[in-house]
Design brief:
The structure holds 2 protein chains of 2 kinds. By secondary structure, chain A is of the alpha/beta class. Chain A has a single domain, classed as P-loop containing nucleotide triphosphate hydrolases (Rossmann fold). Chain A contains 10 helices and 10 strands. A 6-stranded mixed β-sheet of chain A has the order 6-7-8-3-9-10, sandwiched between helices. In chain A, strand 7, helix 7 and strand 8 form a beta-alpha-beta unit. In chain A, helix 3 packs parallel to helix 6 and helix 6 packs parallel to helix 7. Chain B is mainly alpha-helical. Among the domains of chain B are: about 50 residues, no CATH class; about 190 residues, MetI-like fold (Orthogonal Bundle). In chain B, helix 1 crosses helix 14 and helix 13 packs antiparallel against helix 14. The chains are: A alpha/beta, B mainly alpha.
Chain lengths: ~260, ~400
């Protein structure tokens, strides 16, 4: 566990999911979810395919709004203490402060610079210096600055898969979000690129709060401070990672970790 | 153990005729394809053989410039005592007759077959510009709405059905629609509404009167726009759908609004495809005859659309007056009726007595028309090839 000594008092959790039910049309996908995400910690969501971990992740920045008929039917989701389904929540502001990195790295077919600057530009930043600064800062955070500083105008699609995914991380953190959601960010990458991103995650947690969905249990052990195990739309167990992996409270968790899942 | 084969070949085919059926199927399909190719080649060759000699010359500049740069005119053919045929225009005919005195056997006049086809070329170009402008605006707007905004459901199904039906409407129906809607009832700004105005809204300084635009480039262009609208909508929607969903998700996840997402991370990548397919729309618009018959086209017109007699300006006219006249001359282009290539071909083929002189004009026009449309299609293919290499993801 990489506890951060600079955090003295415990602030309230940045993300709170309370008694939440979530439906796609008439079929319920998540049941009665309760989850707290602490500031500057990495929280991992694990579970078998189709257990609802991605759906839960996408509830935090309301990306599920894009799916017609998908909606929260019970409970609430609070980010920074505010219910994000309140009528006075501006979706663009929410998503500016809750960034997201997707499973498939998908840089825009534009230059590296334009990719990173995209978020700032759509939020109205026009100052060239501010943009330059943000691009450098974000690429540095994503451990890409040294590699790419001489070819910022090159097309982002010319980068390798691992670089593309790190570019997507840089793009997501350029708007300085409080929370960074990652939906299986390494599932399409080779082991070396995966390692780089995992190393990055420890660094990112110093500045941001990270929530990561992963199907790789070892990855959860390596990167996360807290782990939530989901199964069939229910949150089975949520605990500090070490505790959950060494001494799970629930039989189901234990079975999943041992791989003797039925 | 298998039963012992009767000969050495364990893979011998049976004799159920499956091979014969296979061969028959292959040849049936092949012959069908060959017939299609044959017909295409026959049409092209026929037009080329008959039309190319009209347009091309064996001497410099190798092109019949008269045919491409003059307006259509009545052709006068005078046969002299020696049996020579002298082809000339109306002024030339007088001169020739004066020279020959009474020593000519016969004079024939063939309408529209002399001169060139500049009028129809210009008219078709103007109609295409207006129709593609209108169709692109409406079509792309509709496609964006359908692809990015509309919820899946009854309404969307209805719109799709409407577009499908629009594609199936016979073009002459579009022509009649254009006559009713644009020629006779479309709104325009006038000082005093005409007698036939359906409805007039006085605004004080001017009046919006639903009295139609008359037969003109604007009416014809709008009518053609509706003919090619289904093509443009369908193609644009496909291009928009071809942009990866990930671009939209990422953009939205960065806090972009829906329109920002479309504007910055969908449209730029769909535009090449939309433009490419709209070039095919141009070819279609250029080729339609029925929609412009009642709305824009004239069988004959002795002036180009911008050769309009405007009152001459006084010598001391201000620069503003000159400017104003230029603008009104430019806008006047779109309120003139014009000749158009497809309608000109129809006139030459159906409205005048057929003889060798008319035939020459016919094939020349068809050849030029075909070359124009073919080069549009070719440029669309080239453009697509180049842009595909540039925009890949």
């Amino acid at each position: 566990m990489s506890a951060d000594p600079t955090v003295k008092t415990t602030p309230p959790p940045v993300v709170q999911v309370r008694d939440m039910d979530f439906c796609y049309g008439t079929s319920k996908a998540l049941f009665d979810i309760n989850l707290q995400v602490e500031y500057h910690r990495v929280t991992a969501l694990i579970g078998p395919s189709g257990c609802g971990k991605s759906t839960l992740l996408r509830c935090i920045n309301r990306m599920n709004d894009r799916v017609p008929s998908a909606r929260v039917t019970k409970g609430e989701v609070l980010v920074k203490g505010k219910n994000i389904h309140d009528a006075d929540v501006d979706l663009t502001q929410l998503r500016k402060q809750v960034g997201m990195v997707f499973q498939k790295s998908n840089p825009f077919p534009k230059s590296i610079y334009e990719n990173v600057a995209y978020g700032l530009r759509i939020h109205g930043e026009k100052n060239k210096n501010a943009l330059d600064e943000a691009v450098e800062r974000s690429l540095t955070h994503a451990a890409l600055w040294e590699e790419l500083k001489d070819r910022l105008q090159a097309n982002a699609l010319a980068l390798s898969g691992g670089q593309q995914q790190r570019l997507c991380i840089a793009r997501a953190i350029a708007t300085v979000p409080d929370v960074l959601l990652m939906d299986e960010p390494c599932s399409a990458l080779d082991p070396i690129s995966t390692l780089k991103i995992e190393e990055l995650m420890h660094q990112l947690a110093k500045e941001f709060t990270v929530v990561i969905v992963t199907h790789n249990m070892q990855q959860a052990v390596r990167v996360s401070d807290y782990t939530a195990f989901l199964h069939l739309g229910k949150l089975v167990e949520f605990a500090p990672t070490e505790e959950l992996f060494t001494n799970p409270r629930e039989k189901l968790t234990e079975a999943y970790l041992r791989g003797t899942f039925s | 153990m298998n039963s012992t084969p009767t000969n050495d070949n364990p893979f011998a085919g049976d004799s159920s005729g499956i091979q014969q059926r296979e061969t028959a199927a292959r040849w049936g399909l092949r012959v069908g394809s060959y017939i299609v190719v044959l017909i295409t080649v026959a049409i092209m060759l026929h037009i080329f053989v008959k039309g190319a000699p009209v347009v091309f010359r064996s001497q410099w500049p190798f092109v019949n410039t008269q045919f491409l740069t003059e307006l259509p005119a009545t052709l006068h053919v005078i046969e002299d005592q020696q049996g020579n045929h002298i082809e000339t225009d109306v002024n030339g005919a007088d001169a020739v007759k004066k020279k020959l005195g009474d020593h000519f056997r016969a004079e024939k006049t063939i309408s529209y077959s002399g001169g060139g086809i500049l009028g129809p070329i210009v008219g078709t170009a103007l109609l295409v510009i207006v129709s593609v402008g209108v169709a692109l605006f409406l079509g792309v707007a509709c496609a964006i709405y359908l692809s990015e905004y509309a919820k899946h459901g009854k309404f969307l199904e209805m719109v799709r059905l409407a577009i499908l039906n629009l594609a199936g409407v016979p073009s002459v129906v579009f022509g009649l629609f254009g006559l009713g809607a644009f020629v006779l009832t479309a709104p325009r700004f006038v000082g005093v509404p005409a007698e036939r105005s359906v409805f007039a809204i006085p605004l004080g300084f001017t009046t919006i009167s639903f009295e139609g635009w008359d037969t003109c480039v604007l009416s014809g262009g709008f009518t053609l726009a509706f003919v090619i609208l289904p093509v443009i909508i369908t193609a644009s929607e496909q291009c928009l759908q071809a942009v990866p969903q990930g671009f939209r998700e990422t953009s939205m996840a960065l806090g972009a609004t829906r329109w920002q997402t479309i504007r910055y991370s969908v449209l730029p990548f769909a535009t090449p495809g939309i433009l490419t397919s709209s070039i095919l729309g141009i070819a279609r618009a250029a080729g339609e005859t029925a929609p412009i018959m009642f709305t824009a086209a004239l069988a004959f017109k002795d002036k180009l659309p911008w050769q309009k007699d405007l009152p001459p300006l006084p010598a001391d006219a201000s620069i503003f007056a000159h400017w104003e006249q230029s603008v009104s001359r430019f806008l006047g282009i779109f309120t003139e009726s014009v000749q158009a290539l497809p309608y000109h071909i129809y006139t030459l083929a159906a409205k005048i007595p057929q003889n060798e002189y008319a035939e020459r004009a016919q094939y020349g026009s068809v050849f030029v028309f075909l070359v124009l449309v073919a080069s549009l299609a070719a440029s669309s293919v080239l453009l697509r090839k180049r842009l595909r290499a540039k925009y890949r993801w």
